[in-house]
Give the backbone structure.
Amino acid sequence: MKELEAFKQIEKYFNDQLSPEALTYFEQQLQTDPEMAEYYRQYLQLDSTLRFYGKRKGLKAQLNAIHNEMEATAENQPTAERKVITPFGDKQKRKIFWHQHYATIAVAASVAILTVFGTLMSIDVWRSMGKQQNARYTALRREVEKIKNSQRALVQGYNGADARVAPKPLPANFSGTGFAISSDGYLVTSYHVVKDADSVFIENRAGQRFRVKNIYRDQTHDLAILKIDDADFTSFGSLPYAFKSDLSELGERVYTLGFPREDMVFGEGSLSSKTGFEGDTTSYQISIPLNPGNSGGPLLDSQGNLIGIISGQQLDQQGASFAVKSAYLKQLVEQLSQDSLNVPIKLSTKNSLSWTSRPEQLKKIKDYVFMVKVYNN
């Protein structure tokens, strides 16, 4: 419903139907509300496509009408006087014809636009035609190598044969990264990391594992909220980082932690664009080389504020990676807390990393970043 209301407001904006007060509020929303800015971008993209299609249909109708008029004119002339008439040979005739038929052509274009809009009934369908289907964009979920899987399975079988040795868990099908968002066991990762999962576990750098359950999956913004579902878990304790709502500035130094391999890996770079792949306003572009397995990892600024969640990279541009803005994570958590959770998720608002060195920041953060292991049949 919120999405529908947003598109109604945008439609009124383009038709000059907003009052001065509503117009001021709407323009402020475009500057401060990233979700409204994303709806606005989608509207412009869809409107541009529909207008182009309408122009094509209108031109086709106009040419057909000209052709029909030419045939009618030729049939009404005496045979001896008939001659080839070109539609561009008589400027005055074209002008008269246009004034006679422009209304019909406009109606035809409008019908074409409505037809296409009906075909694209769902904005989510339109949105899904974007980056995930584009060969230049790749998500960063890691597929565990089949050879390594086989080797680990053999090791597990060997250990399991000895009753004194606890069997090792089977290797996962896929892996990514996730991190804690509250002290009571809530985490976030990328939607595409867990989308095919039958079961999901997280594992910290010390090898401790917890089963997690799905709380909510947001395919649109490529986010998934998980919660530890394990009797051995008590609490993460106080998180050291805070979640930033405001936009970060171009050129800011940023860094991430993730699991592109079994060991935790640090990556550092800068914020190279305030928009993501092909102008996506829900994401940042960052100049950090990333690899499969980094998806779902935290993106932090130099003061240790959480500003994004790693999602993917552009294949034809070296070092161009993307992260979903933390503002969308905050909105998702707030919506979940209001609509479907008995106990609200309390995001950390205190940052204990400010004005500390990078190594000191990493020491505090690494206990809250996990490898996400995905299993399916």
User: Anything to note?
Assistant: The chain has two domains: 2-129, 154-375. The first strand starts at residue 137 and ends at 139.
